[in-house]
Amino acid sequence: MMFEFHWPLCFLLLPLPWLYRRWLPPAQNRSAALQVGFMERLQALQPLADQPASAGRKWPFVVVWLLLLCAAARPQLLGESLPTAVTGRDMMLALDLSGSMEFRDMQLAGEAVDRLTLVKHLLGEFIDRRRGDRLGLILFGSQAYVQAPLTHDRQAIGDWLEESFIGLAGRETAIGDAIGLAIKRLLDEPAASRVLILITDGANTAGTVSPLRAARLAADHGIRIFTIGVGADTQAQDGVSVSLRGLQFDPSIELDEGSLQEIALLTGGSYFRARSEADLQAIYAQLDQLEPALRDGLPDRQATPLYPWPLALALLLSLSLSANMVRRSRAHA
To answer: 313-324: buried (b, 16+ CB within 10 Å) or exposed (e) per residue?
Structure first.
């Protein structure tokens, strides 16, 4: 068990009554006053006996204010950690690290970046939202290998993704091997829903397995594959030769969109084309809808609210002070 205040910033309001008393002008008493000839001598007398009593009458109001602040700060007791809710979905992420991913035809926050930098940035945000899924990470180039096995630890997946770099698995593109490795990993797990998200900017140029053959095998085992083709359509080439300046060329000429579309179609998934940062953000948002994860914000611990106790004490003390004031007014009447 652990005690905490859910909104501790409420205690910043502690000096509010004193600031109110200090900065606001005193109330003006417009009632008629009795004029007596010896008023100056009465005012000169020091009510020494009343000073301690006056100070003593202030502390109940201070206690009431503190209790109200404690209630507003939402005190609570946190119990043991709750078991992580799961969706029953196993999701492998296959990321292309071939040499073409270093092409700088993407924009991130207004700056030109290579394809891998943009994909890693937005894929990391996608991973953070996949609460309840088991995620795994496959990196592929000339070869494919499992960088992270299926796990609920999204932080670890994000860290391994961030540590990846172009050429880590070779400079070519083994799409078929990546799909085959994902199938092998997903078949070992008894999940009701198996998903592969494949991100690449090229065509299959390496490996021993045909991408379409691997896709048919995935379809036979109920594995959906969502493919994402990365790369801008055209870009102005500022070459060394003056004659080449302003020439438009297609930086995604090596992207095999036909195969990626067929892979998605065979497995019941979808194909997406990412030409920019906005495209990738929209793609990940669509994936969140097609394969919804649990909502963030679910409590990780059982919280027992305690705010009714200070609130009830403040109410009782306020009623006691009010009753005491009524008694005094009747006694002086």
So the answer is: bbeeeeeeeeee
Q: Is 45 left (phi over 0), alpha (psi -120 to 50) or beta?
A: beta
Placement of tokens 């409420």 in the chain: 10
Residue 281: name the closest of 151, 109, 138, 143 by CA: 109
Each domain of the chain, given as residue ranges in start order, spans 2-22+50-81+300-332, 89-290
State the Cα–Cα distance between residues 62 and 305, nearest whole angstrom.
Answer: 24
Half-sphere exposure of 120 (CA within 13 A, CB side): 20
Q: Which CATH class is domain 89-290?
A: alpha beta
For 20-62, write each residue's pLDDT tens digit.
878 877 666 555 555 555 555 555 555 544 444 455 577 888 8
Task: Please report which helix (H) or strand (E) contains residue 318, including its range.
Answer: helix 308-332
Tell me the CA end-to-end span of the chain in Å, nearest whole number: 54
Residues 283-303: what's their mean pLDDT? 68
Give residue 84's pLDDT.
52
Q: What is the pTM of this model?
A: 0.60
